[in-house]
Amino acid sequence: GESVGLHLPTLSVQEGDNSIINCAYSNSASDYFIWYKQESGKGPQFIIDIRSNMDKRQGQRVTVLLNKTVKHLSLQIAATQPGDSAVYFCAENNQGRDDKIIFGKGTRLHILP
Amino acid sequence: GAVVSQHPSWVICKSGTSVKIECRSLDFQATTMFWYRQFPKQSLMLMATSNEGSKATYEQGVEKDKFLINHASLTLSTLTVTSAHPEDSSFYICSAREERNQPQHFGDGTRLSIL
């Protein structure tokens, strides 16, 4: 169903450390997953995606892990930088059916100096 | 590449007026565009899906006569909030996708404030 967020959970990470942001998705039929980064006052920015036939995908400084058994998605950011401060949303999509992207609740990443 | 432009970025208007928001794909042809609404500190809520040349498909609970969507070309979709009231104040975001198995690219949103 649709995601309704209340107050965003916050993850505080020391600059230079690795960040891990977790997401539980709702639909076992979802076959495409995306992580977005949203800075204040802006639209979501695509970070990385993964299809359901994979369990890991790496990009530049980011890695997405998919565990379909427990419907869990994670985003790992290596060597976190101040510019990584933002709200991160996971999104799920069922391309074989209604093809809608449903956003998760979001996590605010706060970088400590 | 894959730039989506949204205009205006910010609008304030009186209650009862209609407001039009434009969403343009600048460097690709968007067969599908999506409109979302986002309240402060909350996630994006899908309002409607729009395919070029077709009527938009609205999500449950979204009034199609209140939120008019037009997708007349492969690079432009518009959302018109008709007879806007203070409860319509929100951050409206569009996204566009070139083909079905490709990611959506988002505009920078329109902050709508109704007095």
Mind explaining what this structure looks like?
The complex is a heterodimer of chains A (113) and B (115). Chain A is globular, with a radius of gyration of 14 Å. Chain A is mainly β. Chain A has strands at residues 10-14, 19-24, 32-38, 45-51, 56-58, 62-67, 72-77, 86-93, 101-103, 107-112. In chain A, a hairpin with a 3-residue loop joins strand 5 (56-58) and strand 6 (62-67). In chain B, 0% of the residues lie in helices and 52% in strands. In chain B, strands 2, 4, 5, 6, 9, 10 and 11 form a 7-stranded mixed beta sheet that branches. Chain B has a 4-stranded antiparallel beta sheet with strand order 1-3-8-7, with no helix packed on it. Chain B is globular and about 40 Å long. The mean pLDDT of chain B is 93.
Task: List strands and helices in order, with pairings.
The complex is a heterodimer of chains A (113) and B (115).
Chain A: E1 10-14, E2 19-24, E3 32-38, E4 45-51, E5 56-58, E6 62-67, E7 72-77, E8 86-93, E9 101-103, E10 107-112
Parallel strand pairs in A: 1-10
Antiparallel strand pairs in A: 2-7, 3-4, 3-8, 5-6, 6-7, 8-9, 8-10
Chain B: E1 4-7, E2 10-13, E3 19-25, E4 32-38, E5 44-51, E6 57-58, E7 67-73, E8 76-81, E9 90-97, E10 105-106, E11 110-114
Parallel strand pairs in B: 2-11
Antiparallel strand pairs in B: 1-3, 3-8, 4-5, 4-9, 5-6, 7-8, 9-10, 9-11
Question: Could you give a quick summary of the protein structure above?
Answer:
Chain A is an all-beta fold and 113 residues long.
Report the count of strand segments of chain B: 11
**CA-to-CA gap between the ends of chain A?**
38 Å
Helix and strand pattern of chain B: EEEEEEEEEEE
Query: pLDDT below 50 for ≥5 consecutive residues: which ranges of chain B?
Result: none
pLDDT < 50 runs, ≥5 residues of chain A: 1-6
Task: Give a quick account of the main beta sheet of chain A: strands, pairing sense, barrel closure.
Answer: 6 strands, mixed
Assembly annotation: heterodimer
Average of pLDDT of chain B: 93
